Amino acid sequence: MSKGRQLYELQEVDLEIEAKREAFSLVTSRLGESEALAEARISLAKDEEHLAELQRNQRLGEWEVDDLQAKAALLEEKLYGGSVKIPKELASLQEQVENLKRKRRAQEDKLLDIMAEVEMMQKGLTIKKGELARCEENWRNEQASLSREQAELSAALATLEQKRRGLISRTDAASLELYETLRVRRQGRAVAKVEQGMCQGCRIALPMSEVQRARMDQELVQCSSCERILYVS
Ligand SMILES: [Zn+2]
To answer: How does DSSP classify residue 13?
Structure first.
């Protein structure tokens, strides 16, 4: 294989390696825990905690209503039982019963508010849980596909690197050194094709003699304008 063609092939492999490495690090950066999912889980846990607290309050409220009812019943029994006969005491008992009943009604209103809030919270939680489950499913699928992509890129890189080693082993040290130097200086493109007498690296028309020397390919010929190694295909 001619020197120019060999270096051109090496460049093709190097450009592909570079692109695959970039893709590999992009894929790798997207693998792992999702911040949005972690936040959604925390928010759900907070809502569940809030619901549990509301349900505790509901139970306490119910207990309070039962208690007030029992106390009122006990006093009513005394009031209508006939054991108390003094009018002043009866009036006081009556007042206490009314008081307890008022308290109970107020407590029942509070309890209804709590129950409405519990119901709303439960509905909201069901929706949130469904959304989170869907997001987790999407995330798992995405992670699986990213893992596959990562493995494919890794395998492709191994093949390319092997190909590179093969190409390098057939290239002389001086050509390789020139290639590496120009590769750094020309953003990865050390070799330029010659098409219709023009260097495809800098788009400048080359002197005929330069094109001819490049075509003969007995030595490496560099573009007089951009320094790239010329390759006539
Ligand atoms: Zn050029």
So the answer is: H
How many angstroms is it from 191 CA to the middle of ligand 1? 9
Measure CA 220 to chain center: 49
Instruction: Mark whether 67 and 165 lie in a shared domain.
Output: yes
What 3-state DSSP class applies to 204?
Answer: strand
Q: Is residue 45 part of a domain?
A: yes
165 band by pLDDT with thresholds 50, 70 and 90: very high
On whether residue 17 sits in a domain, the answer given is no
Range of the domain at 131: 31-169
pLDDT, averaged across the chain: 95
Residues 6+ apart with CB under 8 A from 15: 188, 189
> 53 and 152: one domain?
yes
The predicted pLDDT at position 1 comes to: 61
Q: How far is the CA of 229 from the centre of ligand 1 (A)?
A: 8
Residues 35, 142, single domain; the answer is yes
Between the CA of 150 and the centroid of ligand 1 the distance, in Å, is: 37
3-state secondary structure (DSSP) of residue 222: strand
- Residue 188 C-alpha to ligand 1 middle, in angstroms? 14
How many domains are contained in the chain?
Answer: 2
| Number of Cβ within a 10 Å radius of residue 226 | 17
In this prediction, residues 124-129 reach a mean pLDDT of 97
Could you give the CA distance from residue 41 to residue 200 in angstroms, rounded to a whole number? 55
Region 135-160 average pLDDT: 97
**DSSP structure class, residue 221:** -
pTM > 0.85: no
**In the prediction, which pLDDT does 3 show?**
85
